[in-house]
Amino acid sequence: MTAKQIINDGKKNYDKIGGWLIICAIGLTLYPVQAAVSLYTEIIPAWSSESWPQLTIPGSVSYHPFWAPLLIAELVGNGCFLILSICVVVFFFKQRKFVPRLAIIFLASNFIFVGLDCYFTQSILATTDPTNMGPIINFVRTLVASTIWITYFLFSQRVKRTFTR
Q1: Which of 22, 25, 21 lies closest to 156 in space, CA to CA?
Q2: Which of 48, 63, 85, 88 has fewest C-beta within 10 Å?
Q3: Which sequence spans correspond to the domains of the chain?
Q4: By the 8 A CB rule, do 51 and 91 touch?
Q5: What is the pTM of this model?
């Protein structure tokens, strides 16, 4: 089978992932790795027997009433996005017809999650470390990537002709 097939209406149907989809494939493939590293290095350590009481017990030095719900939301949310991202990658490389819709849902929900996370994290850090710009940088990066890739998945002819199975 060739890389391009002619379908009934004369338009090309792509058998291989190519063009800008290669960049998207790299990003989608790296996302589960990044999510797993984030869970392991940032979120799970906050649940340790040393960190959790310092963050969640009233009267401790780093206490804030939002820490416990934020840490629970971080663990659940990042775990769900890790699983969802693996599904998106698998279906992406199988070139399933529903991948553009699934990718848009994944990107939009990730943007919303990161936005809420940034807001609540900044609310907490404003009282403990106002110079921490990590959440804002992550939010802006997610905003730019989501805007670019959602637009691409919505309007690209390459996407429409690649994901046909």
Answers
A1: 21
A2: 48
A3: 4-162
A4: no
A5: 0.83
